Every structure is written in C-alpha cells, then in structure tokens.
Amino acid sequence: MASPTPDTRLERMDDLVSLCARRGFIFASSEIYGGINGFWDYGPLGVELKNNLKARWWQRVVRERDDVEGLDSSIICHPRTWEASGHVEHFSDPMVDCRACKKRFRADQLGDAGKCSAREGSSEHDFTEPRNFNLMLQTRIGASEEAASVAYLRAETCQSIFTDFKRVREVARQKLPFGIAQIGKAFRNEINPRNFTFRSREFEQAEMEFFCHPSGREQWFAHWLDERMRFHKELGVDEANLRTRPHEQDELAHYANQAVDVEYRFPFGWQEIEGIHDRGDWDLSRHGEYSGKDLAVTDPDSKERVLPLVIETSVGVDRTCLALLCDAYCVEELEGGDSRTVLRLDPALAPLKAAVLPLSKKLADPARRLYRELQRHWNVFYDDAGNIGRRYRRQDEAGTPFCLTYDFESEDDGQVTARERDAMTQIRLPIEGVVVWLRERLEARA
Ligand code: ATP
Q: Fewest CB within a 10 Å sphere: which of 129, 148, 199, 207?
C-alpha cells in the first residue's frame, strides 16, 4: 500500500469514528437506546473487513502449517478453569474514584485523569485509595441463585486450549512441538473502555498456543515473534507504524516468563495490538493440579515424559481492524480545491472488491449481468444512484479498490472502464476478461 503523505494521515479519531458510523463499518451497540459503553457493532462493511482479517489469520496460522490445529470452544467453561488459570485471584486492575467529578479511573493510567472535569475548576484531584477490581464478567447458569451457579464469560480464549490440550493432541495425532489455535469472543469488564474499539468490554481474540519441549522455548519464541511481525507487515500497514516492545520484568503477567508486545502507532499513541508470551508450564501444571489429570506427554525425541512449555501469540481482532482503518484512512487534496476521503485498504482485505456502476439507469440490464457474474466470486456492489463522481467518492470511502463503469460505448465495444482507487487511473477492459483481471489484482498480495 502506498503510504499517505504525513499531512493526510489520520490525526483525530473522531474523523474515523464518524466515517465508520456513516459508512456502516462500526457503530455503537444498541444505538437506539443511546449505546452501551464498551460494546460495538460491525455493520455490512465492518463484518466483511473483520472476516477477511480472521480468514487471513486462520490461513497463515492454521491451514498453511502442519503443526497447528484449529479449535472452536464454548465461551462459558467450568468455573474451576478460572480458578486454575489464576484469573479469579489475579485478573484485576487497580481502580480509583475521583470524589470531585465522580469519574472512575485505572490507578495505573492516571494520565487519563486529564479528562477529569474537576481539573477545570481546581487543579486538585480527590482520589479514593486504589481498590482491586476483578475484570471477569459473571453470569449464572440454570434457575438456581446459589453461589455454585456462578460462571464467567471467558476473559481470554486460550484457557480452553489448555483444558482441551490432551484430546486435541490425541485426535489430531500430533507430537511435540505443535500448536492449537482459535478465534473467538472474550469479555473483560474494563474500568474505562475508550479509544473507540481499542478497549472494549466484548472483543475478539485470535490466539495460538504452541506446546514445546522446555529445550525449545527460546527458538520457538523467536520463531513466533518473527512470524507474527511478518503477518502484520503483510496486512499492508505502514511499517513505520509498527514496532515490538519487550515487557519489563515488573509488567509481566502472572503467568508470563517473557513477553513482547507488537504495537501500532495509533493517533492516540503507540499501543499493543498483539502479545507474544512465554507462558512456561503455568497453565498445564495448574490445570493438571486442579483437575487431577496428568497433562504430561511423551517427548518423541527423548522419550521422556514432559509437561510442555507454552509459547502464546494473542492478537486482538478488533484492535487490528482499528489499526488497519487508521492506517488506511487519508484525506487527499485534489486539483481544483476539491478533496476526497479514501481508505487505502489492501485489496485482499477490503470489504468490497469492486463496484459496478452503470452510467445511466437505462444500462441496468447489461451492468447487472456483469455484477451477477462478479458476485459469484467476490463481495461486490452495484450502484446506479447519483452522478458518477459521487459514486466514486462513496466507494473511495468504503475502500473499494476497483470501480467498473458500464457506459453507452460498452454496448458497442464490449468493454467497461476500470478505475483504480488509489491512483484514480482508468483503463478500458473487455467485459469477458474482468474476472481474470480482478483476480490477478486481488490475489497479488495474499
Ligand atoms: P491491555 O494491556 O491493553 O489491557 P492486555 O495485555 O491485557 O491488554 P492480553 O491479555 O495480552 O492484553 O490480550 C491479548 C490481546 O487481546 C491484546 O493484544 C489486545 O489486542 C486484545 N485485547 C485485550 N483486551 C482488550 C480490550 N479490552 N479490547 C479490545 N481488545 C483487547
């Protein structure tokens, strides 16, 4: 993707939020009731972008490898899972309240208190002492109100990978080293949801847990860090906006021995989109202990029984979508003082691959025939409303890489005009060659 010049890059999140709502990428959940803080809905374009991203991850992490198996586990698991994982005890953030403005903050992110309205009146905050607030969302199962009916919505997707580890290994006839991957919803009762979808209370993770012999931990950590950075670069984001950041000893999670974040430079600063963690044998040993099952396996090389170590890659689907949107957004000055907003998404990830635009409604029949043909291959759009310039702008904002205009000449020469989104170049193309022409361009990066 050609990167936009610095002065056209997204600076205010509000501009993106408004485009996303206007064009139906992402908008507040339960909008007609005023929304619900920390929950978002993906509209017709958003769901396609997200699905394309998830399909790319699944392709790279599961299908193209012989040593990773897929899983789709339930969101609610046995509550003991979360005792064993340490979440009941440790998964909390320190919370403070401001007595003056009544707002609630994370004590470790008090930079946010700049938004505290008390600041305008007096420069003093009046914070309560920090209290630990567990981030797991609770629910109840069955008709009983007893404590025993309490269950949790999973706070991360990986715990079922650990509890299902033995069965998946057996059914897939895998030997160490190998991994298990899944994509799914996770829930955290975040104290301060903010920055659009960046910190939500319901979000999607794509996680892969790689089980290896203890002697392979360094090698596999390096391998996965490398793989994951390559993945992010191949999404077409500007590499200047990507970096890795190793965790300091004092910020490691309770289960982690080593961790590196993949960060993206959002308009609100460098922030984590993925974590690569060396979880050691924490999870398997705890689940072994709490379930009473032996989760050790025989190492095929040394023939010894070992409890494998785990290297985890955990990426936020929503955060990556947000990074893609931020990176793709740009406003371009055109000749004549005009400007256009364009999403320069990688064509392989773009929600719509092409739009078919008849120059006049009189040309609907042949234009629709082309549209129906393309629909058999891709998500495409048909638009005959408004002048052609306006229709191009709408597709630019949706990130559609190609527009195919059917005009009166098409009737005679059997060709359409293909317009490319970024350079706005136009060429004439035989109608029967459109599918092949598009395929070459859409698969170029995949
Ligand atoms: P943070 O420090 O930002 O709260 P984390 O370190 O707790 O994130 P992990 O537990 O490592 O995050 O989760 C892995 C990935 O899941 C993160 O890199 C992120 O992309 C995603 N994720 C975590 N929490 C949220 C959230 N509240 N909203 C959206 N995505 C999230």
A: 129
Distance (Å, rounded) from C-alpha 130 to C-alpha 158? 29
What is the atom index within ligand 1 of the atom nearest the CA of 317? 20
Of all protein residues, whose CA lies closest to atom 9 belonging to ligand 1?
Answer: 275
Ligand 1 pocket test, candidate residues 40, 158, 197, 203, most atoms within 8 A of CB: 203
CB atoms within 10 A of CB 46: 22
Q: How far is the CA of 287 from the centre of ligand 1 (A)?
A: 23
Give the pLDDT confidence of 17-42 residue by residue, as tens digits. Answer: 999 999 999 999 999 999 999 999 99
What is the three-state SS of 10-76?
CCCHHHHHHHHHHHCCEEECCHHHCCCCCCEEECHHHHHHHHHHHHHHHHHHHHCCCCEEECCCCCE
pLDDT in tens, 68-124: 999 999 999 999 999 999 999 989 888 898 888 888 888 888 765 545 544 444 458
- Could you tell me which CATH number the domain at 352-442 has? 3.40.50.800
CA distance 376 to 355: 14
pTM > 0.85: yes
Give the residues surrounding ligand 1 with Cβ less than 6 Å away: 156, 188, 190, 199-200, 203, 205, 272-275, 314-316, 318-319
Which ligand 1 atom lies nearest to the CA of residue 262?
18
Domain spans of the chain? 8-86+136-326, 93-134, 352-442
CATH classification code of 8-86+136-326:
3.30.930.10
202, β-bridge pairs: 187
8 A C-beta contact, residue 174 and residue 167: no
- What average pLDDT score do residues 128-148 get? 86
Residue 444's pLDDT is: 64
Tokens of 40: 């978002």
User: CA 319, CA 321: separation in Å to the nearest integer?
Assistant: 5
More confident residue, 444 or 231: 231
Largest CA distance in the chain: 78
